[in-house]
Amino acid sequence: MAVLLLAELNGSELALDLTAKTLTAAKELGEVTVLCASESCTEAAEQASRLEGVSRVIKIENPTFGNGLAEPLADLIVSLSEDYDHLVGPASTYAQNILPRAAALLDCMMISDISGIISEDTFERPIYAGNAIQIVKSSDSKKVITVRTAAYQAAEEGNSAPIDEMSHDIANNTSEWVEDRVASSDRPELTSAGIVVSGGRGVGSVEDFELISKLADKLGAAVGASRAAVDSGYAPNDWQVGQTGKVVAPNLYVAVGISGAIQHLAGMKDSKIIVAINKDEDAPIFQVADYGVVADLFQAVPELIKKLDEIQ
Amino acid sequence: MKVLVPVKRVIDYNVKVRVQTDGSGVDLANVKMSMNPFDEIAVEEAIRLREAGKAEEVIAVSIGVPKAQQILRAALAVGADRAILIHAADDPHVDIEPLAVAKLLKAVVDEEQPGLVLMGKQAIDNDMNATGQMLAALLGYPQATFSSELNVEGNEAIAVREVDGGLQVIKMQLPGIVTVDLRMNEPRYPSLPSIQKAKRKPFETRTPEDYGVDISNRLEIIKTVEPPTRKAGEILPTVGDLVDKLQNEAEVI
Ligand SMILES: Cc1cc2nc3c(=O)[nH]c(=O)nc-3n(C[C@H](O)[C@H](O)[C@H](O)COP(=O)(O)OP(=O)(O)OC[C@H]3O[C@@H](n4cnc5c(N)ncnc54)[C@H](O)[C@@H]3O)c2cc1C
Q1: What is the pTM of this model?
Q2: Are B161 and A178 in contact (CB under 8 A)?
Q3: Is A279 in the pocket of ligand 1 (CB under 6 A)?
Q4: How far apart are CA A144 and CA A146, in angstroms?
Q5: Do B166 and A177 lie within an 8 Å CB cutoff?
Q6: Is the per-residue pLDDT at B58 higher than 90?
Q7: Cβ–Cβ < 8 Å for B114, B149
Q8: Is the pLDDT of residue B183 over 90?
Q9: What is the pLDDT of residue A183?
Q10: Beta pairing partners, B4
């Protein structure tokens, strides 16, 4: 079986962790070719070629593909699709925008967010915000798939797969990139961090959310948030964890002032260790937490920071 | 311009989903069903466009069981002008796949020629996040997925998209497809008089055969199972105990 893996690119940069985790899933399906398409992606293609298990990298540099717009990228994937049985990408906003469009052009159903591979045509995927797991078997000629990256380990580096440069002229006269509003941060990325500290509505204000960030920095963690915290403007949208935010599975997830609605649990319940700090002892988050502290977060979090200071 | 808003009937988001022990699916008997929350936001945005004078007519369409007419009535009650029900299944456990839904919606678009299709980014039952992208593909239209802000000016739309890195702003030519995220707006509640009025709004029922669309599924559901469950752990008396456990028992810090 031949697999085409759509590498996740932020401009010219490879999203290494997402791509490497998707690769681990793709390798189970067959021989993997990685597609890097952007305005410039020489370094990204080289990085992808070093990932263990990649047999070839296709590099296509063209400004049309530079901002992840779905229209030209879906057309590109369709034009390359003939040689492949599986078209695969991470279940990120990048690939989830593009691959269902490509699937429809190929008259294939989309298989989103798979968390397991049973065989080359049978997959496991969470439905109902992770409250059920469905096993589905595809009868389509090509399987178009996005992968839940939190369910996979990243593939290692150490390879040197050949890179084929190709050119492709695909016009896009219907959509246009205007701007990205992206805040840069020195903190680890939410989906690849070993520790995540998330704050919820209980935190109460954007000023007090600093407390969450401070705890995160103390632990070298990424910062996450519940939807209520994002909706209230305490945290930016890209920090949201859950059914409609990011799915994370770190070694340690600390939920502060978060009640534990199923839509939030959908994004973090596969974490190795879950800690909850909440003043309501009946909060549902305690039903999934390994360790809970029933306390006012404004006392517990500063105390926790102090204790961590002492042991460091 | 007309705005088309597809809406799906799903288990209410507050209901605790129960998986049938025989693996056949999720228990839908006697559970509360509602409009998919993302679709409510799409309906609201469409009505606001009409109220702002940017759209003339809002058409709600649903594909599914006859009872889906309840959510179409709900869309009419908050301000949609007319509704189309495509009666595609009798058993509520039958989920029409996004590809088939997109094909039916394409047929509706071909008939109605809306300038904009506003729809939810995903349905909270199958969580597939695909129908809008697929519809855009079949029509050859541009798409603005996961949008939390929309501005329509003439035959152009500017959308702010919620993406993994933050926000992305794109501009697209209409006709086009916009899929909405939860932060786009706060849907209104219907008033009693508008619920009454909704009963007199035009309501059409069609079938997939009317449109000549094959809706057979491509994915066979082998089984549906419970996810692995987590056990509740310990409640610790102090923050000091927590640090001790994290350090010496879980060994994660
Ligand atoms: C379609 C849909 C999709 C959704 N997707 C997501 C998603 O992706 N992610 C997500 O998170 N939610 C999502 N939600 C929303 C979800 O249903 C909940 O509303 C949300 O998760 C609640 O956030 P919260 O726990 O921060 O707020 P609340 O539920 O209000 O909980 C606040 C908690 O803080 C505690 N608290 C308050 N003050 C203090 C204090 N001083 N000290 C300690 N504890 C305190 C309270 O006891 C309470 O438990 C979605 C909802 C829908 C309908």
Answers
A1: 0.98
A2: no
A3: yes
A4: 7
A5: no
A6: yes
A7: no
A8: yes
A9: 85
A10: B59, B117
